[in-house]
Each structure stands twice: as C-alpha cells, then as structure tokens.
Amino acid sequence: MPPQTPGAQSSFDWPVRVYYEDTDAAGVVFYANYLRFMERGRTEWLRALGFEQDRLRVEQGVIFAVTAVELKYLTPARFNDLLTVRSSLSHKGGASLAFEQDILRVADQAVCCRGAVKVVCLDALTLRPRRLPDRLAAAI
C-alpha cells in the first residue's frame, strides 16, 4: 500500500516491515520498538508535507521533541509482519502538535498498538519552546 498524502483533517499511512531485530525473545515486536515505528510515521508525515527535519533545524532553527506518550498494546506484531503506521494530527498549538497513532497489521487490520504522542517545537540552540514556523503551521 503506498503512503497517503497528508491533509489537515486526514490520516497519513506509512508502511513498516517487522525485522528480526525488532523482536524480543518471544518472537514478537519489543514494546519500545512501537515508539520507533511511530517516530518514522511522524517523520514521513512531515516529509510528505514538504518538510525535512534536518532542513528545519538548519534553515528555521527549530527541532522537535516528544514531551508525552501514552501507549496501549492491543495485539502482538511478529517477525515479517507488514504493518501500517497511521498518524493523525489531533491538535495543533502555537508550539506543539498532538498525534493519535495506530499501528495496524496489514493482513487482518488488527490494531497492534495505539498511541497518543505530544511533540513540542524547540529553538535548536536554546532548546526552549518556540512557535511552529509559519510555513509549517499553514501547511497543517
């Protein structure tokens, strides 16, 4: 399934394959790796909007940091499963973004993990909160 183009009110899907390195001794995805998958989903969402995080740091002087996460593990994903990371913007503040993210197994559309993630925009030098760049705020 190809990634979807994000929009202000839509979700954005990003495919992820479970590799052996993503699993634990029981052969299921190690719980912390769901956070890595979600990070990829948010990064690709930004990229699809036309924003690269390294360029935002250099050209706009901003970086992003996760300030809060809530996860629910619902059903395990296993080695070689194809997953979809579905990211939806649930709130846009002056200096923050909140996302609802689901990780679904493609084969049966089971939700493996559901998360709420809050991200803050920071000044790259001072690491203090800073308003979202105008162009980015307008795009979302």
From TrEMBL:
<protein>
    <submittedName>
        <fullName>Tol-pal system-associated acyl-CoA thioesterase</fullName>
    </submittedName>
</protein>
<dbReference type="InterPro" id="IPR014166">
    <property type="entry name" value="Tol-Pal_acyl-CoA_thioesterase"/>
</dbReference>
<comment type="similarity">
    <text>Belongs to the 4-hydroxybenzoyl-CoA thioesterase family.</text>
</comment>
<dbReference type="InterPro" id="IPR029069">
    <property type="entry name" value="HotDog_dom_sf"/>
</dbReference>
<dbReference type="Pfam" id="PF13279">
    <property type="entry name" value="4HBT_2"/>
</dbReference>
<dbReference type="GO" id="GO:0047617">
    <property type="term" value="F:fatty acyl-CoA hydrolase activity"/>
</dbReference>
<dbReference type="InterPro" id="IPR050563">
    <property type="entry name" value="4-hydroxybenzoyl-CoA_TE"/>
</dbReference>
<keyword id="KW-0378">Hydrolase</keyword>
<dbReference type="InterPro" id="IPR006684">
    <property type="entry name" value="YbgC/YbaW"/>
</dbReference>
